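Suppose you are handed only these lines of text.
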Amino acid sequence: MANTVIIGAQWGDEGKGKIVDMLSAESQVIVRFQGGNNAGHTIVVNGEQTILHLIPSGILHKNTLCLIGNGVVLDPEVFLSEIDALAKSGVEVSPARLGISRKTHLIMPYHKIMDQAREAARSKGTKIGTTGRGIGPCYEDKAMRAGLRAGDLVDPDLVRAKVARALEEKNILLRDLYKVDPVDPEAVAKGLLALAPRLIPYLTDVEEHVAQAMKAGRNVLFEGAQGCHLDIDHGTYPFVTSSSTVSANAASGSGVGPNTLHRIVGIVKAYTTRVGSGPFPTELEDETGEILRKNGHEFGATTGRPRRCGWFDAVILRESVRLNGLTDVALTKLDVLRGLPVLRICNGYSYEGRTLDYPPQGEGSLGKVTPVYEEMPGFDDDISACKSYADLPEKVRAYVNRLETIIGVHISIVSVGPDREQTIVR
Ligand code: GDP
Ligand code: IMO
Ligand code: MG
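From them, the structure of the protein bound to 6-O-phosphoryl inosine monophosphate can be written out as follows.
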């Protein structure tokens, strides 16, 4: 038995969906432990693409149980439309293989309205660039003990009371501060209760399922969303998401002890991307950045926004290794670098007259560093059909080996294309 945690080691969109799907072939239970439908996880099987925002990326493997843990925030409408879309394409999504923790918080219509109104009110330079999916306001309600949880759906009176209480405060903000229409609590409660009969069959005790599976010697896979540097504590605050994205949260976000987590795989893009605002030392706002965006199809899987692109940043990565206790790394999108004459790797920062090999921690300080680069020769070969590490051209292996050396963790998986098959296990 081996339990594995998958986390994004950069700023999200590293290819977690693809690797979770691949490792699901050897796992019986897959658990999402944080975030919500701000995530967009892409899986490609035989050329056919599926983008999942909420349902674990193990769902395409027939014999898996997919669970949504207590650390997730769940938009009921998105959940139902996602299962409808999967069912339409022939995927079994009955409660026999899909469950939601009773403790999972629900994203309510007013969370989305708050998220969007607040972003709109922020002045240039202070906008976070959120996905507008209500993620932040939902976690706020959780922390201020005003949230609705999935388990509440069985109690209509509790739903109505909680909605009314939440809106007492929010409607003042919406009407008087953000100058948007207040929300009718009756209509919100009615809307949610209308979805309840479809949601209730999915309610389950996630921690118990996971504990039983572990006891029976099954492999459990924990699927992270976003990336380590979007973490609410360790990320580039305030330009972060509202949940804990580091590996430790796989335990508390799904209700298991940290001693059950054996392998922690960081998903790492062979370069760097970021969506939304915030510091990004190796960002390329030039033709090379355009090439990466075009060749890597770097447009958000959730919002369609163009992703900011830049060189590989080993300083950021070393911090990810430390914060997550990575046992190994899956390096993705290596094929995208094809055709660039030179590959640059940031291996240090120049900051206030010093050279740092780890990121400065003060708020905004990452925006003030200058990357110190080393260079490696690029490659022109098409590597997208390579099946083994030995098949990769020498220049490509040299790049991978160099990354491995400077981040200090074994690169166990190399991805050379979006398809499930385009993966090299070392
Ligand atoms: P996630 O949020 O971490 O699951 O990543 P996304 O799905 O948002 O973004 C990754 C994108 O890269 C998706 O379009 C994937 O299909 C694609 N992808 C994943 N691995 C590779 C790879 O090795 N090469 C290429 N060219 N594309 C990849
Ligand atoms: P996956 O799981 C990339 C970013 C948003 C914004 C910030 C806060 O696909 O890797 P939020 O809506 O969470 O309050 O937005 O976080 N963000 C992501 N960026 N990939 C994601 O998920 C993201 N989820 C949130 O762009 O900058
Ligand atoms: Mg994504």
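What can we learn from it? The longest strand covers residues 342-351. The chain is about 30% helix and 20% strand.
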